[in-house]
Amino acid sequence: MTDFELGYTPNNLKKMMKDHSLSQKDVYELIGKTRGVFSKYLLEPENKNFVSMNHKDWVKLIKHVSSK
């Protein structure tokens, strides 16, 4: 993985999904979240509806893509 910011950011999440051909549904099912909650992870932090993905879920996603 290259061109990443440090840690979880909406941009890193989008890039990881694109680089590994993962849909939003793939990811929110993997981490056990609803579509509504997951969509807030993709918003820019300046957006009042933005929610930051917790570290446990971010690590779970990283492990998933690293195992492929």
Explained architecture:
7% of the residues are buried. By secondary structure, this protein is an all-alpha fold. The mean pLDDT is 92. Helix content is 54%, strand content 0%. The longest helix has 12 residues, at 55-66. Helix 2 packs across helix 3. The protein has helices spanning 10-19, 24-31, 35-41, 55-66. It starts with 9 loop residues before the first helix and ends with a helix. The chain contains four helices and no strands.
What helical percentage do the residues reach?
40-55%
Shape, per Cα inertia axes: globular
Mean pLDDT: 92
- Residue fraction in strands: under 5%
How many helical stretches? 4
Show unreliable segments.
Answer: none
Give the N-terminus to C-terminus distance in angstroms.
Answer: 13 Å
Provide the structure class: mainly alpha
The description of the largest β-sheet is: none
DSSP E strands, number: 0
Order of helices and strands: HHHH
Multimeric status of the protein: single chain
